[in-house]
Amino acid sequence: MLMTIRSDASPAAHRFGPRSLFLLSGLAVAGILIHGYHYGFDDQSVYLPAIKKSVDPVLYPFDAAFFLLQTRLGCFVNAVAASIRFTHLAAAWALFAWYFASLLLLFSGCGRLACRCFATAAGVRGSLLLLTSLLTLPVAGTFVVLCDPYLHTRALATGFLLFAFVAILEKRFTAAVWLFLAVLTHPTIAFLGAWHLAVQAWPARTQATVDPPSRAVGVLALAAIPAGLLARWFADPSDPAWRAALSSRRFLFPAQWTWYELLGAFAPLAILYLYAHLAQRRGLNVLARICCRMAVSGGIGVAAGLIVGLMPALLPLVPLEPMRTLHLVYLVLVLSTGGLCAELLPRPWKVATAALLVPLAFGMFVAQRHELSASPHIEWPGADSHNDWLEAFDWIRLHTPTSALFAMNPDYLRLDGENEHGFRGLAERGQLAEAAKDRAVARNIPALAWQWRDEVRAQEGIEEFDLARLSDLRKRYGVTWLLLRKAAGRATSLTALDCPYENPTLRVCRAP
User: Fold this and answer.
1) Please, what is the end-to-end C-alpha distance for the chain in angstroms?
2) Cα dist. 423→372, 392, 449 in Å?
3) What's the pLDDT score for residue 487?
4) pLDDT at 3 (0 to 100)
5) Domain residue spans in the chain?
6) How high is the pLDDT of residue 488?
7) Are 200 and 290 in contact (CB under 8 A)?
8) What residues in the chain have per-residue pLDDT under 70?
9) CA–CA separation, 101 vs 151, rounded Å?
10) Nearest to 31 by CA among 166, 185, 150, 143
11) Rounded to two decimals, what is the model's pTM?
């Protein structure tokens, strides 16, 4: 695969100055209005309690392992906690400020990259506007989106990777600094991003060619050897508890993806290669190089993901989720599409394409509202919640002792109306292991797998437990409080319990 190009075109601009802050802030605000914002949601079930534990070590005396071990490798938790201690902001306001800053970082990195790729300001703006409209676009079947509608280390790490990307294009040593910051923020995303950056940095055979590195497969294979040995040291593939943590997680195994998810893995690679040829013919040499090499690194990453998912001997590598190399591929694809449309189409077509951004953004807005219909589109810090689950969590935070340990339905995150809001982070109380996010932690920290499986099984069907089984939870695990759904519970059990709080959906009861 060889692509000859001409000398570099002059990009529209090479740096974003202070005047760009207004544009970046506008894009961040538009992203929040279109895609929403949520607090204590999804992966914040892990990060938020870790932050609050760092601020107040008294919290979570029994179950901190389920979030501290997962977050110990990066500095994100400590940085957010330090900002809370320094500013004395409430956690909700601090995380919102960090989320806005992460959007600014992401858009700034994308803007700098677009400035290297396109020759006009219209190309740069087109790429950023399309990204704003598609900010929560799912990445094939990987269970991630371009940017989450809540504070996640992935957005910060991606922003740092984009700055490293630009530094590599400009042959600056600061690329190592940006990559190091990405590692401190999200080691897994940084590792996958470093693979793409290594391919981008690979020297071409001549200055006039965009030469995808022919030895890249060999380099990846050599890198996989120590990774595989390390994974085998941490995880035993024959461990039934660890295998249970992997089970029923279809996104980890590409062979189980639907046809359209597989299409979403392979089609972007082909499109990027076509973009590379188009950019070459139009003199956009940097974009041609980026798209061609991104297609190569993405293709090898997809191949690695398929191999890891299909070979039982490589099962310990599954938690690394190599298919998430597609995250940066999708980001470059969106930026390239928006920029090429704005830069190369005739003026009437540019107007028509720009008009399509409105229904596109509206469609993403509707998709978010459909998925999270039981929560406000934007969960402003300090705003009252009308969600029964969140109201119960808030009552628990205010009226139960910090040493409380709760038992509840282990699948509560998947129940209608709960909308994946984590109990620990919002209620600030401990709980026995649940089936979704704690499963992911047990998958990555095999030493927790047996505890996770034992505690989940002990709570299955808890709304139907009699008093003897509820009392057994106190004897076995030290459970002192229960969070029970009213509609599912047995009347004989519930009437015998001391339940100081209830709403139309839930009761909070003392364990017998």
Assistant:
1) 70
2) 17, 10, 20
3) 73
4) 40
5) 388-510
6) 60
7) yes
8) 1-17, 204-239, 248, 488-494
9) 10
10) 150
11) 0.89
